[in-house]
Amino acid sequence: MRPATEAELAEIIRATNAPISVRGGGTRAIGAARGAVLHTGGLAGVELYEPGALTLVARAGTPLAEVEALLAAEGQRLPFEVPDLRAMLGRVGASTLGGVVAENASGPRRVQVGACRDSLIGVRFVDGSGTVVKNGGRVMKNVTGYDLVKLLAGSRGQLGVITEVSFKLLPMPEAGATLILSGLSDAQAVQAMAAALGSPFEVNGAAHWPGQGTFLRVEGFSASVAYRAARLRAHLAAFGAVEVEAGTDRWPAIRDVAPFAARPGDVWRLSVKPTDAPGIVARLGAEAVLYDWGGGLIWALMAPGADLRGRLGAFQGHATRLRGDGPGALHPEPAGVAALTRGLRAAFDPRGILSPAEAEA
What we know:
Layout: H1 6-15, E1 20-23, E2 36-39, E3 46-50, E4 55-59, H2 64-73, E5 76-77, H3 86-89, H4 97-103, H5 110-113, H6 116-119, E6 120-127, E7 132-136, H7 146-152, E8 160-168, E9 170-171, E10 175-181, H8 186-197, E11 203-209, E12 213-220, H9 222-235, E13 242-246, H10 251-255, E14 266-272, H11 277-284, E15 288-292, E16 297-302, H12 308-312, E17 317-323, H13 335-348
């Protein structure tokens, strides 16, 4: 199924009682499709772009690459640095804006500007009864129904099929620099990243790649970047020598988890308290790890079929398997959260037809 209009999509949903799995470009979905696949690629096109207002409105099936090229021509970008995980996940296709929102896909810059949902200011979607719902607006000052806008981000198509999204944008920076600390243990790296992120020097990337280094990024006007990089270097002197590298060429590999792309095994994404991260990694027995978000995000490469949840036991945070086979890819919800989820699903999808893949959790 590939509707070309929102009205056609609504009619498809109203006319079916069978399960539907929503797919954009197929580059980010977790787990196998269950039921008929509904492709949103026919709902494509930029509807409004106002560079002066830093606002973009586009249909959900619009390719991400098309949007990024359009913004780059005006010296602007989506704030939240969308990861491209195709190589790591072994997938092809073109990522879509709707898929980005449905997964709340967010890269290293999240530590400064927030996640995808924090830049989302409006959304249209068709719920499980076939009703078209509009929430939010097309300008940054419009926050009508803002909670519902955020609710759809990360919902993975369980509450409705997104048809249109509105974003606030940011200008591209004039310059950037990467500070590199070498030889730190995982615990020392987390401390150094916390010191950098807690400083007044506006760090917008903080990652640790064991064996390669600890990386910190600053961006902005050239003079400001030079000043802040120098001050940050002095601020981190207690952690050892700090190299300052012009540019930000290292960050796409961190953003896209490139170190795992050519290596076999399961890939897990863990969201944790940064201070807990080194201890959690010590219990994993992972073949490789990559820390992002100052330690709040752990990418773990595990042996195929490794029982990550059994090794960890109870911990504060959640773990999702993005690559690998078998049940249990999604993190089990606590009883209270599960009850809230069921209530939301009952309200937005009373027939229970949308994206039943979450049953594998």
